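Weekly modeling sync, notes
Attendees: S.R. (lead), two postdocs, one rotation student

Agenda item 3: backlog of single-chain predictions. S.R. asked that every request posted to the team notebook include the full sequence so nobody has to chase files. The rotation student volunteered to paste the first one in as an example of the format we agreed on. Action items at the bottom.

Example entry:
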Amino acid sequence: MASDSRNATMNIVRSHNIRAQKKYGQNFLTDDNVLDMIVEAAGVCSGDHVVEIGPGLGTLTKRLAEKAGHVTAIEIDTQMIPVLDEVLAGYDNARVICADVLKTDMNEIALSYPDEKVKVVANLPYYITTPIVTGLLESGVHYDSITVMVQTEVAVRMQTGPGSKDYGALSLAVQYYSKPEIVVTVPPEAFYPMPGVESSVIKLDLYDEPPVKVNDPAGMFRIIKASFMQRRKTLANSLQNNQDTSIPREKTENALAAMGLDPMIRGEALTLEQFARFTDLL
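Predicted structure, as returned to the notebook:
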């Protein structure tokens, strides 16, 4: 039996002649249970200002507006704006901004309701998940939490550690700023149209202070990104050959030796704490 949200979604799609846009990675979530789980996982309450990215047809937006103090929904697709205006007509605490989130001043949005905690909730377009998540984390905005639907393999990447093929720059960025936890795995059947991959909801609880201290966080992330550009190369070779770092091999090897590490080690073997110490030594 189809869920209420799936029926409502199909009615909106038909009445507004909506076509899911591949260029925006649109897959509309239609499973009531999953929608409820997202709101519950995010812990949305009346003291929150929720920023939703890619509200689409507004199915999740309505649920957020019922719980939150305020909701700001950022939607890039102009065809969705009349739909959202219609769906959210009864919710005075919800507003829609037609914009590209990657070009939006998130600090300005976050400061709209200064007395409320800011939480991000989203069913993210999978093709730009990484730039959106890293952009949010590095924005300087103090989000209380970020709860997002992403491709399962990306969710795994966010919370994995050294020694895994999924470990990389995204893992380290997420774990520097937050504590990640996969909440639920979602099958393709929960969406319209169905994506070709499995999805997961992951919650990032942001730290007040990062779990490691480093004198130059931006420098550390330049080193991290360079060390994973060519995973099979040693850290020393990666950092010497990358134009964003250009660190002489001898300098890297001396720092590694001071840490008691093999000079032939690869970046994928270092923990967040080791990257922080390595950066400070350099």
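Discussion: group reviewed the output briefly. The mean pLDDT is 93.
Action items: rotation student to repeat for the remaining queue; S.R. to check formatting next week.
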